[in-house]
Amino acid sequence: MSLPSSLPAAPGPTSGGRSRRRGGADVVPYDFRRPIQLSREHQRILQLGFDGFTRQATTVFTSALRSVCAVSMRTIDQRSYAEYVDSLDQLTYLTLFTTEPMPGRGVLHLPLDAVMSCVDHMLGGPGSRTQPKRPLTEIESGVVRGLVERLLREMRYSLAAIVAMDPEVTGVEYSPQFAQVAGPADVMVVMEMELRIDDVPFEMSVCLPFSGLHPHLAAAAAPAPVSNRERAQRAEAAQVLQRSFTDVPVDVSVRFRSSFVDPALLSSLSIGDVLRLGHPASAPLDITVDDEAFAHATPGTQGERLAALIVAARPTSPDELAELSGGGAHQPAPPTPVHQVTDLAAGLPPDVARDLPPGFPPGAPTGLDDPTLTLQELR
Asked: How far is CA 124 from CA 65, 128, 137, 296, in A?
């Protein structure tokens, strides 16, 4: 019995399938000038709170309109107040309410078509899709106000686990431009929902100030108090981490100050030429780690090795450097339009190190600014 020379390839995901799966998610542009401050944990907490609000709002609309209604959650987003106002219609129904104990005020947005349909249902009408676009009359405002106050009470109950908010209606606006709840650049948290009345969809939303809501979200997201055992384990882990950091080796460099040299001089350098450095003989050298100076030292020797004697354990100002060198304040020469040479390492060959006195006291001249010292000797 012989086997076929080739077998059909096993079915599997193709690159096209992967690309279709990846393309299923919506790409949202990110504005680096306004970083997102609403974390996913905070969004999850708000999602739980407003899921309860949508369920209660469904009951409120159904019982008040005596019709089939449904409220569902759509998105929770962070926006500026100007962006939120621009997303609304020119003529709509905005209820402004207080957010005590949080500073600022909130907004409950209901489209004017949905409000007119609610009024039509509550007054015994059919609630047809075609509704007039106009501000409410005094009687219509009184009817809708009772519905809105019930929604705000349900919001207070749903957000009780986050903040003990007691919303009260402070006003109604029909034009978003006149609803001065916050500044145009103030960050707001916008909860968008969908309201369905007799299978007719409407968009409704709740806008709350982020600055007042964020401390309560952070407190709600804080972990539960830990036991004494967990606290001791965390303290021990912190000590182990601190001891480990003290044993990590780092590369330390001892450097001269930067010098400014004409590019024409650099291009014509050859063995035997003299290159005068901009580092004074009496000034200490810089001790750096990753190009960050954290101390100053003077060069010297210890046995057969070069050494650096620490004279300052932190970056010092030019006046302090002058005091360490024992002279007046150093006045650097005016820079010329040339390129800057990188810092030179202070490592010297053994033949030059033997010329330095043992210990090399601070402030003593190094001799490295001697014009007779050539590049060949420095090597």
From this structure: 9, 12, 17, 87
204 lies in the same domain as 260: no
Looking at the fold, whether 217 and 257 belong to one and the same domain comes out as no
5 lies in some domain: no
Average pLDDT, the chain: 76
- 43 and 187 together in one domain: yes
pTM exceeding 0.90: no
Query: Which domain covers residue 64, as residue numbers?
Result: 34-221
Asked whether residue 93 falls in the same domain as residue 200, the answer is: yes
Instruction: Give the residue among 189, 223, 184 at the shortest CA–CA distance from 36.
Output: 189
- Give 365 or 340, the one with higher predicted confidence: 365
pLDDT at 92: 92
Rounded CA-CA distance 311/48 in Å is: 60
First to last CA, the chain: 80
Residue 169 has pLDDT above 70, yes or no: yes
**Does residue 57 contact residue 97 with C-beta atoms inside 8 Å?**
no
Return phi, psi of residue 368, to 5°.
Answer: -80, -10
**Could you give the number of structural domains in the chain?**
2
